[in-house]
Structure prediction request, 221 residues.
Amino acid sequence: MDYRLIRSRRKTIAICIGRDGEVVVRAPLKADRRRIDAFVHEKQSWIEEKSSQMAENAAARREFRVAPGSALPLLGREYPVLPGERVAFDGKSFFLPNGDFETLKPKIIRLYQSIALKVISERMNDYVRQTGLTPSGMRIGSANTRWGSCSGKNRLSFSWKLVLAPPEQVDYVIVHELAHTREHNHSPRFWKLVSQVLPDYQLRQKKLKAVARELQKQDWD
Prediction:
């Protein structure tokens, strides 16, 4: 099986499947090549399954388009896309002017970012009042691999893509990051703090992973 090998000062061998289906193996600097090949062979079935799925997702992203007549997701719902003079959302429908998707995409993302700022700020403020956990600040970003993060100075960042998920999953990410303002780790203390606010956080977490898998088929980069 073909794969790209990256050696570094790590202690274990790991396999990563790129968004285009490429197989990348990360290994210690002095790991024997035969040992690496044996590890890859052992994981071959998993690699083939994941590579096939990633390749399918990549093909779906290449075909992904948004135009009047289609729909756009928001907070777990699908809203129709109608012709309009500018990129907008009125609470019932999205509106797009004439133009190709690649040209309109940055404007659609900016609209989502403004919606995300409003929605996440309001939901976060509710949980700040409920928990007493207070961040030093909050921003909306465009992270592709993380829903949210908390800096060492307790500043929270959220991907605008979070508002594509249902409200229950939005709340989970908000509470997760707020908990990090007290516990900068994923220790039992951290998860206890999360569970005190959201006893069903594990179910919300599982559903959020399903949302992430669906988003891999959409081209928002």
Notes: Residues 71 and 80 are 4 Å apart (CA to CA). The radius of gyration is 21 Å.
